[in-house]
Write a structure and sequence with these properties.
- The chain has ten helices and 17 strands.
- It has about 350 residues and is α/β, with parallel strands linked by helices.
- Strands 3, 5, 6, 9, 16 and 17 form a six-stranded mixed beta sheet that branches.
- Strand 13, helix 7 and strand 14 form a beta-alpha-beta unit.
- It is globular and about 55 Å long.
- Bound molecules: zinc ion (ZN) (2 copies).
- The site of one zinc ion has 5 residues, from loops.
Length: about 350
């Protein structure tokens, strides 16, 4: 099968023919139709995350069809079913974190496209227990970015509790998805972009933000919570300064530059800084229940599998008009008919 392989960090991925994987006990063999590219992939390629499996097939927003089912796999998937494979690939189910409902923090967790092989390939295998059924409303390309930007964004959003005045720093893919849910739930949204990025600020206002400005500005109201999706450490004290008493800054990314020091007075009055790590299967179930109700819409820009380096380069350079998605295998004829219907429906709604 074809795969885009990372031999070592800071090198381009290599298009290579590698053996098709075989499903182990409890695993599904999945024919990959689409795989979205995540900012985390950039961090892995840049060597900013420790100890990736090498050589590595990246990709943890994988949408495909079940081709074969390994021994003893749970019966929640049948051959031919559509399946979504997320970042959380496996946990031990046994450590203190797993036993307390925090499998996202599992001591021995394995992560798709990082410590186990992911979806930048014609086929992949995944533990069936961590795979999701995906809402029918979305075609394969539309649904792919929901698998990480959506899920981990949603976990970040849930960490803001009932925040009425909600700030979002960095208005990329995750922010765009989560903003739609926040507005659906009646939150007032304050969006911060790079200073002077008027186009993105205008996008945010059009989506329904009550205010959009530069990250060097203070919001017009004190915020109950702010989510930071940009990997820029100095945004943490900046966001903290805009919080109401008891407010929280939630860092939604896996990697961030160093956070500069700030006066204790900015943290005083029970303000909180926290981060979000990974996801639980519960996050996925909750998110895929609410996303089609909103409905959360995705904007995507597609690339072929062998164009993965181009997708990564353009992502890094901020030159994309939507979430990048690799179209890996063209869908089978029966699936194409269904996708055509879906895309007609969604374009009519825009
Ligand atoms: Zn565990
Ligand atoms: Zn991701």
């Amino acid at each position: 099968m074809r795969a885009m392989v990372l031999d070592r960090p800071k090198q381009p991925l290599q298009l290579r023919a590698v053996p098709k994987p075989k499903p182990d006990r409890g695993q599904l063999l999945v024919r990959v139709n689409a795989c979205a590219v995540c900012r985390t992939d950039l961090h892995v390629v840049a060597g900013e995350l420790p100890d990736p499996k090498l050589p590595l097939i990246l990709g943890h927003q994988v949408v495909g069809r079940v081709e074969q089912i390994g021994k003893d796999a749970p019966s929640n998937f049948a051959i031919g079913d559509r399946v979504g494979i997320p970042w959380l690939g496996w946990t031990d189910g046994d450590c203190a974190y797993c036993r307390s409902g925090r499998e996202n923090l599992c001591d021995n967790a394995l992560f798709t496209g990082y410590t186990i092989a992911g979806g930048y390939a014609d086929f992949t295998v995944a533990d069936a227990r961590y795979c999701f059924h995906l809402p029918d409303r979305y075609d394969d390309v539309q649904v792919a970015p929901l698998l990480c930007a959506g899920l981990i964004g949603y976990r970040s959003y849930r960490k803001t509790g009932g925040a009425q005045h909600l700030g979002i720093y960095g208005f990329g893919n995750a922010a765009h998805l989560i903003a739609q849910i926040a507005l659906y739930e009646g939150r007032e949204l304050f969006v911060f972009t790079r200073p002077g990025d008027n186009a993105t600020q205008e996008n945010a206002r059009q989506l329904g933000a009550v205010w959009a400005g530069g990250s060097d500005e203070m919001p017009p109201k004190r915020l109950d919570a702010a989510i930071i999706f940009a990997s820029v450490g100095p945004l943490v004290p900046a966001a903290l300064r805009g919080l109401a008493k008891g407010g929280a800054v939630v860092c939604g990314g896996i990697h961030m530059t160093d956070i500069p020091s700030f006066p204790y007075a900015d943290l005083w009055e029970e303000r909180v800084i926290t981060s979000v790590a990974n996801l639980t299967r519960r996050d996925g179930d909750d998110f895929f229940a609410i996303a089609p109700r909103v409905p959360v819409r995705t904007h995507t820009e597609t690339f072929l599998l062998e164009e993965a380096n181009t997708a990564l380069d353009r992502f890094r350079a901020g030159k994309l008009n939507g979430a990048p998605v690799l179209v890996v295998n063209r869908a089978a004829p029966s699936e194409v008919a269904a996708m055509d219907l879906n895309s007609r429906e969604s374009s009519g709604e825009r």
